[in-house]
Write a structure and sequence with these properties.
With 76 residues, the chain is mainly α. The chain has a domain at 33-76. It is 61% helix and 0% strand. Residues 56-76 are annotated as: Disordered.
């Protein structure tokens, strides 16, 4: 099998800047980084609250609190 050689024209920094401004893109450090478990538990709390399922909401809140306490201990 023969590979095709692909040639690209170099793009200038000004081209990138113009395109990023046109579509309003930027790179920034996230202000808060959350883990999958935190995101999942927050979603469970939201869904349980909307469904008025207080048992499920309380369980998810307790699990979140325990998870965050374990995470805090890991950073000490």
């Amino acid at each position: 099998m023969q590979e095709k050689e692909v040639k690209y024209k170099p793009v200038s920094k000004a081209d990138y800047e113009r395109e990023f401004k046109q579509i309003n893109l930027s790179f920034e450090k996230p202000s808060v980084d959350t883990c999958y478990t935190c995101n999942t538990l927050h979603m469970q709390i939201k869904v349980a609250t909307e469904a008025e399922n207080m048992d499920a909401k309380n369980e998810a809140e307790n699990n979140l609190k325990e998870h965050q306490e374990r995470a805090d201990l890991a950073y000490q």
